[in-house]
Amino acid sequence: MITPIVRTAIIALRRDRVSLVLSFVVPIAFFSIFAVIFGGQHDTVPRVKVIVVDEDRSRVSQQLIKGLESDGSMIVFTGPAPTKNQPSPPDYTAATAEAAVKAGDVSVALIVPSGFGNHPISFGPDSANPAPAIQLLNDASDTIAPQMVTGLLQQAAMTAMPEAMAEQGMKYTDKYIGGFTPEQRKTMDANLALMRQHENTQPAGSAAHNGLAGGGIISVHARSVVGENKNNPMISFYAAAIGVMFLLFTASGSSAALLDEAESGALDRVLSSRINMTGLLAGKLVFNILLAFTQLTVMFLWAWDVFKLDFFSHIPGFIVMGLSTAFAVAAFGMLLASVCRTRAQLGALSTLLILVMSAIGGSMFPRYLMPPAMQKAGLWTINAWAIDGFRKVFYYDLPVRDLWPQVSVLLAIGIVLFAIARRIAQRWEYA
Amino acid sequence: MSANPTPAVPTAAPLQVDSLVKRYGQTLAVDGISLSLAAGECLGLLGPNGAGKSTLIRAIAGRVIPDSGSIAVFGSPAGSPAARAALGWVPQELAIYPRLTSNENLRSFGRYYGLTGKKLADAVAWCLNWAALEDRAGDLARKLSGGMKRRLNMAAGLIHQPRLVLMDEPTVGVDPQSRNRIFEMIEALRAQGMTIIYTTHYMEEAERLCDRIAIVDHGRIIALDTKDALVKSAFASRSQVLARVDGPPAAVEAWVAERGGRMVDATAQFTVEHPSEIAALLDSASSAGLALVDLSLHRPNLESVFLHLTGRELRD
Lengths: 431, 316
Fold this sequence. Notes:
The complex is a heterodimer. Chain A is an alpha/beta fold. Chain A has helices at 2-15, 17-38, 59-69, 94-102, 144-160, 162-176, 182-201, 233-264, 266-271, 277-307, 315-339, 343-361, 372-378, 382-394, 404-424, 426-429, and strands spanning 48-54, 74-77, 108-112, 134-139, 212-213, 220-226. Helices cover 62% and strands 7% of the residues of chain A. Chain A is elongated. The two termini of chain A are 46 Å apart. Chain B folds into two domains: 15-231, P-loop containing nucleotide triphosphate hydrolases (Rossmann fold, 3-Layer(aba) Sandwich), CATH 3.40.50; 239-299, Alpha-Beta Plaits (2-Layer Sandwich). Chain B is 36% helix and 27% strand. Chain B contains eleven helices and 14 strands. In chain B, the strands form three sheets. Chain B has a six-stranded mixed beta sheet with strand order 6-7-8-3-9-10, sandwiched between helices. Chain B has a four-stranded antiparallel beta sheet with strand order 2-1-4-5. In chain B, strand 1 and strand 2 (27-37) form a beta hairpin. Chain B is elongated. Chains A and B meet through helix 9 of A and helix 2 of B.
């Protein structure tokens, strides 16, 4: 009784190549993507991009920066990348470094203050002669990078500044140990008491919150320059990330109407009226854009109402990014519908492409935490550009004019995909 | 676009097809068809499945680009804006939107032809009335019965008040009652002087509705005339005798061959000039040792003509 049913199902599956692809290729593709992101197959440990501003310009500060540069876990920038108009741009300043963090170019910037070389390290609080603290400017949405950089900074101090360490050690020895006169003993006791008091009053792990990060031999003062006022930095990220993924699904589903109409003969009938194929596809594209934009709006309104996303002070940016994203996504749906011959094909192909694009493009896992190669690969997806744009609007509070790279790419994607879809749709025009 | 477009050549025939050829790979779907329609005429395209009827219809509708030959609709090339405006097409498939109501379907197709405002409202009202769907105007198309869907499908092809209508097997899959209803709709159009091309593989439909009938087979028109003229040219004044006899199959076949007949569905068919020839037929059967089961005399019809011309039955 069971065998004939199984046999029939096997024959049907064998003939349905699309289902076979779905059954085997999609899981393998997915596994591979996440294995590359998390698996450490290649050089997959994400390297933190750090801007370093040397205001001290001393031998000690240069040694420290050299030490940071030689660390494989970081990519250190002291100045912006050269461009055609500016072949040798000036080094970052504290202000331009802060702007770069705010713009999302890097997650962390370090400002080595002037005077750092005179007192690079301290083995404890020294209220009379405090060591100048390195400023760590960070993006609050990336909680990993600042901690990593602080640790690496301490490591660099230990390994890259031996002279400074020795010199400072001698100073401390001279100051705290030499002679052990009653007066010195008194000073030392007082400092030890201070250290104890400091340890007792500081709850574990609270240093970063109070601006004193690391608690190591280099004094670091951390400050979030972006996202510090956001009630939840990840809300806007996921509103965009999940929104774009489902927009892609909606667009491909909506475009499937084209296949239904082709199958029922309605498409033939429409094309025998005064509507031509370009007009028909353009009409469906506009509908899909409106549908996608409405879907995004509902999603962000929900985020505003339930998760307190600051929606209404970002309306212009939302409209620009929403329409650009909706256009690219709608054109993607039109292309899929024109390529596929049946709804089953469309379902399989769209599932495969959308899930892969969403994984690589950052809809499931933030791109800035992915290995560099994956981050680059993500730039081939609609998701990445859309998410970056929405983050610029809602997280970095950037003005609309700063959205031009994302908007340009999304519009270009939309135009190219629609042009290809139009060309492929010629098959429906005449037999 | 006007609902009543002015033809490019006012005196041009509603349809002029010349030496039309269309191939699909190795298959010759239309093989040099030529035909012409007079105003107000209803031409039936009669032929079995795969004969090339639908390809011809789609070419006239501008949806198939012929390999050679020409098609003019009221003097305008097929597929041109003027030809599209003058032409109504009722495809064989149910080419309607299932999730829209009857009214919404008609309004949508009307807009595709550029109808708006009162013209659109009037056209929709006329179509609903013509298709007897007034009381189902607000029903979703997918909820309509098979016959109603067919009628809505037809109405959608006439929403822009064309002057030439192509109907591609509009009665496929409908029950006899609905079919009669559809015949009445077409007869109403004919009464208004509409020019119609009607494809079917049901000869009784062609006989009832069409002024002239083109018999199509293997992409060619093998005969084109009125029903009576077709029968007359194929059979003159002859009649058909259908006889079922009992006996060894070899003996039956030998008898049929000897008398110049043919076997169709276990029935021997003969063409006779005069009923008096029947006696000689029966005598020869008896001589061959065959017992007569039943016998009938028929005036030839379109089916007979098709069989006579092609050697095959219409619904093979």
